[in-house]
Amino acid sequence: IAAVLEDDGFFRLPDIWAWRVDSDSEESGWSKHRDRGSRAPREILGEDGSPKSLTVWIPLASVTTHHSCMHVLPASKDPHYWSSHRDIPNEDWGRLVQEIRALPVKAGGLLMWNQRVMHWGSRASHRAHGPRYSLSVEFQSGKIRPLSKFGVCDPTRLPSAAERVKMIASVVRRYQ
Predict the structure, then answer these.
(1) Per-residue pLDDT tens over the stretch 32-74
(2) How far apart are CA 1 and CA 137, in angstroms?
(3) In sequence order, which residues have a C-beta less than 8 Å from that of residue 53 and are 6 or more positions away?
(4) What are phi and psi of 59, to 5 degrees?
(5) Residues 24, 28: Cα–Cα separation, whole Å
């Protein structure tokens, strides 16, 4: 993470998410979005496109295309990547659909993207063997002001029980 953020003083954001996406009922992950989507691109990307913040997505079991794997629109194919658009207008998706990449990953692996990349979890299939279990954790460079109104955390220190409860409560409040 330090190498990607080009910063030895990076922080963990207090946004940790956990998912269980059921394949029997064909649930889906979140719809397409950009993490920190309300931020201007220059707040989360350097002038050269290098990231100032990252999302790390960790499957707790292997995730195939049947399990609601992560899908991304590569930044190089996103016509609104550098614009202030949170989303991509519906009329643009017709020509972009062939650019979408499905990202299956084995348990123990991880995916990492900058927070400007458009991504989503697909709908799970009843053909999947069991649900998708996954976590995501967000990080930011120590060279920028905190991206979360809840501040930042030392990534080398395990939060206390009280801090973990506060973190979970804040995520639950925002999710609802």
Answers:
(1) 999 998 889 999 999 999 999 999 999 999 999 999 999 999 9
(2) 11
(3) 5, 13, 35, 36, 44, 114, 115, 138, 139, 140, 141, 144, 147
(4) -80, 135
(5) 11
Scanning the structure block, which residue is given the tokens 């643009």? 92
φ and ψ at residue 85, rounded to 5 degrees: -65, 130
Residue 176 burial (CB < 10 Å; 0-12/13-18/19+)? Answer: exposed
Segment holding 136, helix H or strand E? strand 132-140
| Torsion sign across C-alpha atoms 68, 12, 173, 36 | negative
Distance between CA atoms of 6 and 142, rounded to whole angstroms? Answer: 10
φ, ψ (nearest 5 deg) of residue 152: -130, 165
Q: CB 89: neighbour CB atoms within 10 A?
A: 9
Contacts 24+ apart (CB under 8 A), 41-46: 41/81, 41/82, 41/83, 41/84, 41/116, 43/144, 43/147, 44/114, 44/115, 44/116, 44/147, 45/114, 45/116
pTM of the model: 0.89
Output the six-digit token pair for 24.
């029997």
